[in-house]
Amino acid sequence: MKTKEEPQKQSSSRRDFIKKSAIGLATFTIVPRYVLGGQGYLAPSDKLTKAVIGVGGMGRGHFGYEDTQVVAICDVDQNHLKQAAAMLDKGVKTFSDYRELIQLPEVDIVHIATPPHWHGIMAVDAANAGKDIWCEKPMTHTIGEGKRVVEAVKQHGRMFRLNTWFRFKDTFYGMGTTVKPIKKLVDSGMLGWPLKVTVSKHTGYDWKFYWVGKDHLEPQPVPPELDYDAWLGPAPYKPYNAHRVHQTFRGYWDYDGGGLSDMGQHYIDPIQYFLGKDDTNPISVEVDAPQQHTDAVGIWRRITYTYADGCQIILDGEGKDANVPYIEGPKGKLYPGFKSDIPDLERKLAQFPDPDPEIVEFSESVRTRKKFALNEENGHRSCNIVNIGLAALRLGRSLKFDPIKQEFIDDEAANRLINPVMRAPFSI
């Protein structure tokens, strides 16, 4: 809802939101698979077609992924749109309203690279439009939005990829290895059970505490190139200040959640995977942090998640213990660099089977209609952990969580954060 101080021009801006698309001069000759012959049929270019929503630094960095061809882009900042268009073929269509972009029949995949407060709405709308979805992390800004994305993707039979890849490729931060050997070690039982995983600067993880907000922002004129009302979208109206938008939006609760939201799924999703907990969540979270501002995200010292079986994830913001193992169990420990107190670990580990194979190229998932390694279901569960922690930080207290109902237990204020009211006319 608008506040009394919201300028009248913001109201007309939202009414005119869908009218503001700027369409490119030409149309691509690439034709989507389903037009030419259904499932599994590739366009003559041998590439799937993709549209990118949000073409700031993050969006522009993802134009070349896999065997896809960008055919359309969208942004509410005209400078971003111009910079992005200059990087692509002249036939790329440009839009200011994503709702027009997702209706393009030539688009196979919609890539969402906006601030997180838009992820849920755009993913649901894209699924409703029959598009497969590639979404940046965090998957959604709230637990309720994540549940709705899971429902929409299932309802329309879409493929979904969350863009954090450490559960299946690339060296996993300070561990000096991919996650595969860590998963194999956990599955072997050599560390025992339950396990405690500590995520800190000493185990290779930077919580980016520079992503904090300012607790007093003076109103500033909105730049002419930015449709600020459209940028806010479902978020509460607050007067424009440059620190609210683009890269520094991460420091404000309305749009993101600081370093925990920015990096949390990169760090936590592989833990969910190697602990074998992709279908559940912790039952409690404890926080040690200064009181948070109602608008601006602050720092925190320690966040402790506990699962029903006693496994724990410790997010250590202070990094007090320089010698802490990454994983600690009753039978052994694993340190950064894949070092362990278990003698002759690699030889012993070689006797155990590798983890089950997964689809790790989204183009394969789109062609075969088989789930990607990190999809809407397990991605939602790891995003829940981020959002559980953010709720505890904002409220300044420990919380109990029901992983089946996906609700907080006996805490009305926390449950209001699951499905917060969106600014009219937006809903999910």
UniProtKB/TrEMBL annotation:
Pfam families, per database record: GFO_IDH_MocA, GFO_IDH_MocA_C2
GO molecular function terms listed in the Swiss-Prot or TrEMBL record: nucleotide binding; oxidoreductase activity
Key words, A-Z: Membrane, Oxidoreductase, Transmembrane, Transmembrane helix
Superkingdom: Bacteria
Gfo/Idh/MocA-like oxidoreductase bacterial type C-terminal domain span: 175-427
Gfo/Idh/MocA-like oxidoreductase N-terminal domain boundaries: 51-162
TM helices/strands, residue ranges: 21-42
PANTHER family in the cross-refs: BCDNA.GH03377
Protein name: Gfo/Idh/MocA family oxidoreductase
Organism of origin: Pedobacter miscanthi
